[in-house]
Amino acid sequence: MGDVSRVDRYLCVSVDVSGYGAHDDVRQREIQRTLLDILDVAGSRAGLARQRWKRQAKGDEELSLVPPDEPHQRVAGEFCLELEAALHRHNLGRDRSDRLRLRLAIDEGPADDAANGYVGRAVVGASRLVSSQVARRR
Asked: Which of 12, 15, 37, 42 would be 83's cystine partner, CB 3.0–4.6 Å?
């Protein structure tokens, strides 16, 4: 029997910024920093150890693999509520052009590190959900 490598099951969280490509490079870098700040605040307020998550930030998206021992119910519940609150606080009193709009998708399943990033069913599922036409319209 051949060697079968173990692939862990993760909760994959994908958060994407709507309209990111319409901005210049300076604004995009600002948006990237703001996105990470908002995610960290939401994680902290939800009592989650985001420093333990496998996180991959690419432009307008952060893809995170939440370890199996992190309370997934808290990610799908409190983290999402805290993310909404942190986004609302960020956008409060800002001009329409400076407000952020986020899309979030969560999937659960096998995932692993690869040479060019994270791979697995959970990664594909969350990425497809966050990029779907339905998510883009909302």
From this structure: 42
Domain ranges of the chain: 9-137
Taking the whole predicted model, whether its pTM rises above 0.90 is answered as no
Q: What is the pLDDT of residues 21-77, one digit of tens each?
A: 888 889 889 989 999 999 999 999 999 989 999 998 887 889 999 988 888 889 999
Can you say whether the dihedral through the CA atoms of 122, 123, 124, 129 is positive or negative? Answer: positive
* Residue range 9-137, CATH number: 3.30.70.1230
* Token pair for 76: 């799908």
